[in-house]
Amino acid sequence: MTQEQLLKNLECPSGPVDVVLDTDTYNEIDDQYAMAYLLACGEKLNVKGICAAPFHNRRSSSPADGMKKSYDEIFRLLKLAGREDLNSIVYSGSQNWLSDEKTPVLSPAASFMAERSRQYTPEHPLYIVAIGAITNVASVLLLNPEMKENTVIIWLGGHALHMPHTGEFNMRQDIAAARVVFGCGVPLVLLPCNGVVDRFSTSRYELEHWLLGKNPLCDYLVQHTIEEAESYAAGRPWTRVIWDVTAVAWLMNENRQFMEEELRTSPIPEYDQHYGFDNRRHFIKYVTEIHRDQLFEDLFQRLTR
C-alpha cells in the first residue's frame, strides 16, 4: 500500500462501508451498547460478520470460556434487537492468546475474516471494529498477510500515549497480538482507554431517563448496567464508561462530530506494559478527544427509534 493510500484509508469514510465487529461481548457492559449502536447505524454500516473474542477475568474461567460466553451473548443481543437474520454470520473466535508473534490461533472467526478480506481492495476496504483483545485480528494478519492491504482496523485498546503504562485490559491480555497489529503496516485507528475514552461515561439516572421503557434491547442494556454497577457501588454514586461505543462511532465521525484525532507513528507495545517509540514506523490514526455529549445524544436517539 502506498503512503498516499494509507493516509486516505485512515480518514473516516464518507459513504456506506462493510463492517465486521470483533467483540468480547460478555466481558463487561459496554460491548452490548457498541453492538446495538452498530446495528442502529445501518444507513452507513453494513454488518458482514460478528466475531466472538476471548477474555479472562472474574466473568470467565479461561479465555476459551470468555469467548464462548461472548459468542452466546451475541445471539442474545441479536434476538433482543430483532436482528436474528444476522445469526448466520456470527463466528466463534480464538480459545487462547497468541503463543508468539508468528503463530496464529486458528478459529472460525479468523478463517472467516481471512477469507472475507480477500474480497476487498485498498480503494474499497473492509472495516474491522475490534473491541476486545485483538487475538482474532492478529491471527488473520498472520494467516493472510495481504489482509493489511484490504482492511482498516479500528481498535479500542491500550491507554493514551502519555500515560506511564499500557496495562489496559484489552492490551495486556495479548501483547503479542497487539505487536503484530501495530507492526504490520495495516491502516490502524487507535482509541486509547484511560486518558481519552474514559471521558465517555454515564450514570444510572441518565440511562433510565433516555432508554428505560423504550424497547426490550434498551431495557436489557439499562438493567444490565445498573446491576453491574450496583454489584460494587450499591448506595454510592457511580458512573460507567461505555468504552466500546466510541470504536463504532469513529466510522460515523464525519466532520469530527464525535471525536478529535491526529496522525501518529505507530507505537510499539512492549512486554513490560510500556510503549516504545520509533519515528521511522508507519502512521496510524490516534483519537485524542471524545465529544461526550454529542455522541451520547446520537447513541440514545438511535437506540430508541
List keywords for this structure.
38% helix, 8-stranded mixed sheet, 12 strands, Inosine-uridine Nucleoside N-ribohydrolase, Chain A, two-stranded antiparallel sheet, 12 helices, 305 residues
Q: What does this entry look like structurally?
A:
The protein has helices at about 5-10, 30-40, 65-80, 110-115, 135-145, 145-150, 170-175, 175-185, 205-210, 215-235, 245-250, 290-305, and strands at about 15-25, 45-50, 90, 125-130, 150-155, 190, 200-205, 240, 260-265, 270, 275, 285-290. With about 300 residues, the chain is an alpha/beta fold. It has a single domain (about 5-305), classed as Inosine-uridine Nucleoside N-ribohydrolase, Chain A, CATH 3.90.245. Helix 4 packs across helix 5. The radius of gyration is 18 Å and the shape is globular.
Give a concise summary.
Helix content is 38%, strand content 19%. With 305 residues, the chain is an alpha/beta fold. It has a single domain (3-303), classed as Ribonucleoside hydrolase-like (Inosine-uridine Nucleoside N-ribohydrolase, Chain A, Alpha-Beta Complex).
Topology:
Elements: H1 3-9, E1 17-23, H2 30-40, E2 45-52, H3 63-80, E3 90-91, H4 108-117, E4 126-130, H5 135-143, H6 147-150, E5 151-156, H7 169-173, H8 175-183, E6 188-191, E7 201-203, H9 204-210, H10 216-233, E8 239-241, H11 245-249, E9 259-265, E10 268-269, E11 275-276, E12 283-290, H12 292-303
Major β-sheet strand ordering: 3-2-1-4-5-6-12-9
Biggest beta sheet summary: 8 strands, mixed
Give a count of the beta strands, DSSP E runs of length 2 or more: 12
pLDDT averaged residue by residue: 97
Q: What order do the SSEs take from the amino end to the carboxyl end, as H and E?
A: HEHEHEHEHHEHHEEHHEHEEEEH
Percent of residues in beta strands?
A: 15-25%
Could you name the CATH homologous superfamily? Ribonucleoside hydrolase-like
